[in-house]
């Protein structure tokens, strides 16, 4: 895949080259994919989140595993550090309206706030992951231009985020849109610093993730049991289920380091606790009921 | 992600976004040129034919026996969506598949719209003659790439089944009736596990050679992933041209759309699906079955691929049949769109 990309000039390419890329990309995938499990945060967010400090203090932290927490502002950052966080995440968006409705400021203002967090994080040797919401569509603005996504992503990267997770917040994206958006972002940020965060609201998550993998992305966010609904479409599903993702990656011969059986157990545990059915098809198929 | 009230889905921009994705669309090709061009640029087919198998493969796996008049109404509704191929029923013994016991009444009862094809399953010559007598003008035969599956499903070996199908296809050709061939277990078998590429290719080639105009390669238990889909298609495409191939992916492990995407990238442009993702999986209790037509159309629309199908009308037909069988839809698009 890397060899193919070097052959592409950083401009609009001719039709023939595009065709060559698309057919040769069918089988080229990363050898290893890092899965970022967002179930406890993005998944459970629809339930309740008031006990963040206790949770962070209470969990057993295993060596070699990162436990990032979301910090929307400086106060949140300070609280996270006080509770022992070694990695934090900040949430930007590629949509002005979404940013306004969500955190009551413009994109530029939000980036200024994040800059404050990033500076403090750097001083405290705390890693920061950036998220960009609405990369394939916004519940308020509708279509989002790939150029805008690239711009916001580039800013977060240059401010010091080690990784940027590109989120299809309302799950409206399809493989073509994913490809166009990533093409634009890849002009500005190296693929090694990118992740995709696909929601399965319209059943497109795995197909979109596959497309991202074909383009060299090797970090994928997902949520065990596909936890979390979608606040923008009542009754709709939310995150891509980690079990279904691992199933696909395993079938593709891509290493994840994740034990599917143990994942299924964790999914069964949380679904029982929440008294709800799993959203993972793999879990549904392997359930012995 | 923020606490935004559900009322936002009434927001005009969101509606506009959905309209662009849930594209109503006409069957008029001219209106789609820019989209088709972008589909071509990305290495996807300009047009994909969707073979709707809900009334047969879908209902076959539903526990609730659907009354004949509901089946007829369901198929008539599907006929108004732009779908060009709708698999109606199966002329098998009612002992084996009670849901399809009313095959003759359904076949006679539906309105056969001009320009739409209504294939039926005919496992043997007897079923074929019954189907023709009931008004069928296209038939399908169902082979498998697994000996065990063939034995358990239709009580004979692959070789014996091929001989039966040859009789059917020969008679069909004699009467100018097109015959479609299915190959089950193309990516895995519930009894044998892994299926060799040679076997899938051999069975497909046999069906194609005897006169089936199209071979639908089925991931019967949905265990396939993009890698195995690619390998299987590469093998089969050495013997059969892509234009004579279709994929029939089950969504048992959530892999269907990713597998279909892979098939499209390899030049396949016929895809089977079932409205509302009807049908469970008889081999994995509680699991889902067919890929939902709505979710497939959503993806194809987004890719700029023409299907000629009106997604809203498909969702309405899906809503109708789900109410009739008293179950929630398996289509994510329908779940997201039919709000409380």
Automatic annotation (TrEMBL), chain A:
Per UniProt, residues of the Pyruvate carboxyltransferase domain are: 1-264
One Gene Ontology cellular component: peroxisome
Cross-referenced InterPro entries: Aldolase_TIM, HMG_CoA_lyase_AS, HMGL, PYR_CT
How the protein assembles, per its UniProt entry? Homodimer; disulfide-linked. Can also form homotetramers.
Q: What does this protein do?
A: Mitochondrial 3-hydroxy-3-methylglutaryl-CoA lyase that catalyzes a cation-dependent cleavage of (S)-3-hydroxy-3-methylglutaryl-CoA into acetyl-CoA and acetoacetate, a key step in ketogenesis. Terminal step in leucine catabolism. Ketone bodies (beta-hydroxybutyrate, acetoacetate and acetone) are essential as an alternative source of energy to glucose, as lipid precursors and as regulators of metabolism.
Q: Which family does it belong to?
A: Belongs to the HMG-CoA lyase family.
State what protein this is by name. Answer: Hydroxymethylglutaryl-CoA lyase, mitochondrial
Write down the species: Odocoileus virginianus
From TrEMBL, chain B:
Which EC number(s) are documented for this chain?
4.1.3.4
Pathway-wise, it operates in: Metabolic intermediate metabolism; (S)-3-hydroxy-3-methylglutaryl-CoA degradation; acetoacetate from (S)-3-hydroxy-3-methylglutaryl-CoA: step 1/1
Q: Does the keyword Cytoplasm apply?
A: no
The record lists the catalysed reaction(s) as:
(3S)-3-hydroxy-3-methylglutaryl-CoA = acetoacetate + acetyl-CoA
Gene Ontology molecular functions: hydroxymethylglutaryl-CoA lyase activity; metal ion binding
Q: Can the keyword Lyase be found in this entry's annotation? A: yes
Positions the record marks as coiled coil are none
One GO cellular component term of this record is: endoplasmic reticulum
The kind of enzyme this is, by top-level EC class, is lyase
Q: Which GO terms describe its biological process?
A: ketone body biosynthetic process; L-leucine catabolic process
Q: Where is the signal peptide?
A: none
Q: Which UniProt keywords apply?
A: Lyase, Metal-binding
Q: Which Pfam families match?
A: HMGL-like
Which parts of the sequence belong to the Pyruvate carboxyltransferase domain?
48-315
PANTHER family under this entry?
3-HYDROXY-3-METHYLGLUTARYL-COA LYASE, CYTOPLASMIC (PTHR42738:SF5), HYDROXYMETHYLGLUTARYL-COA LYASE (PTHR42738)
Q: Which family does it belong to?
A: Belongs to the HMG-CoA lyase family.
Descriptive protein name? hydroxymethylglutaryl-CoA lyase
Species source reads: Odocoileus virginianus (White-tailed deer)
Gene of this entry? HMGCLL1
């Amino acid at each position: 895949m890397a060899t193919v990309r070097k052959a592409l000039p950083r401009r609009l390419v001719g039709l023939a080259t595009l065709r060559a890329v698309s057919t040769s990309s069918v089988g080229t995938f990363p050898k290893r994919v890092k899965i970022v499990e967002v179930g406890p945060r993005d998944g459970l967010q629809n339930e309740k989140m008031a006990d963040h400090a206790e949770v962070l203090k209470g969990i057993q932290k295993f060596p070699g595993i990162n436990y990032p927490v979301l910090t929307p502002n400086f106060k949140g950052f300070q609280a996270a550090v006080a509770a022992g966080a070694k990695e934090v995440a900040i949430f930007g968006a590629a949509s002005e309206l979404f940013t306004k409705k969500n955190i009551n400021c413009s994109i530029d203002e939000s980036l200024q706030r994040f800059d404050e967090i990033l500076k403090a994080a750097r001083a405290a040797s705390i890693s920061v992951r950036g998220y960009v919401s609405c990369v394939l569509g916004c519940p308020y603005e509708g279509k989002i231009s790939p150029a805008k996504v690239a711009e916001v992503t580039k800013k977060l990267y240059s401010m010091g985020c080690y990784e940027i997770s590109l989120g299809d917040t309302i799950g409206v994206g399809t493989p073509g849109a994913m490809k166009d958006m990533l093409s634009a972002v890849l002009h500005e940020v190296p693929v090694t610093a990118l992740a995709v965060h696909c929601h399965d609201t319209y059943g497109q998550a795995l197909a979109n993730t596959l497309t991202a993998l074909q383009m060299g992305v090797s970090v994928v966010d997902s949520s065990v049991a596909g936890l979390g609904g979608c606040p923008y479409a009542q009754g709709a599903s939310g995150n891509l289920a980690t079990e279904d993702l691992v199933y696909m990656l395993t079938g593709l011969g891509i290493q994840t380091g994740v034990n599917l059986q143990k994942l299924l157990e964790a999914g069964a545990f949380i679904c029982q606790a929440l008294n709800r059915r799993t959203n993972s098809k793999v879990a549904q198929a392997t359930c012995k009921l | 992600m923020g606490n935004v009230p559900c009322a936002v889905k009434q927001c005009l921009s969101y509606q506009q976004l959905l309209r662009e994705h849930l594209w109503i669309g006409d069957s008029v090709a001219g209106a789609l040129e820019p989209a088709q061009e972008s589909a071509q640029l990305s290495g996807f087919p300009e047009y994909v034919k969707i073979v709707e198998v809900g009334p047969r493969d879908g209902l076959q796996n539903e526990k609730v026996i659907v009354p004949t008049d509901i089946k007829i109404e369901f198929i008539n509704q599907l006929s108004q969506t732009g779908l060009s191929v709708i698999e109606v029923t199966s002329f098998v013994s009612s002992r084996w598949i009670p849901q399809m016991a009313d095959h003759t009444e359904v076949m006679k009862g539906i309105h056969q719209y001009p320009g739409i094809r209504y294939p039926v399953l005919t496992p043997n010559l007897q079923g074929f003659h019954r189907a023709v007598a009931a008004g069928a003008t296209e038939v399908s035969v169902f082979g498998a790439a697994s000996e065990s599956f063939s034995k358990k499903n239709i009580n004979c070996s692959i070789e014996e089944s091929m001989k039966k199908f040859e009789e059917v296809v020969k008679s069909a050709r004699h009467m100018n009736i097109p015959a479609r061939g299915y190959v089950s277990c193309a990516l895995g078998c519930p009894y044998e596990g892994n299926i060799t590429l040679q076997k899938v290719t051999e069975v497909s080639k046999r069906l194609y050679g005897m006169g089936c105009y199209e071979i639908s390669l089925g991931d019967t238990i949905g265990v396939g992933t993009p890698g195995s889909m690619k390998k299987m298609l590469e093998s089969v495409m050495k013997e059969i041209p892509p234009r004579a191939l279709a994929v029939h992916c089950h969504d048992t492990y959530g892999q269907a759309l990713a597998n279909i995407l892979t098939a499209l990238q390899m030049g396949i442009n016929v895809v089977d699906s079932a409205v509302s993702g009807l049908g469970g999986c008889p081999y994995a209790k509680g699991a889902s079955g067919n890929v939902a037509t709505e979710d497939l159309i959503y993806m194809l629309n987004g890719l700029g691929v023409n299907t000629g199908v009106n997604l809203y009308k498909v969702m309405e037909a899906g809503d109708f049949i789900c109410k009739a069988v008293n179950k929630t839809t398996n289509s994510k698009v329908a779940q997201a769109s039919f709000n409380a």
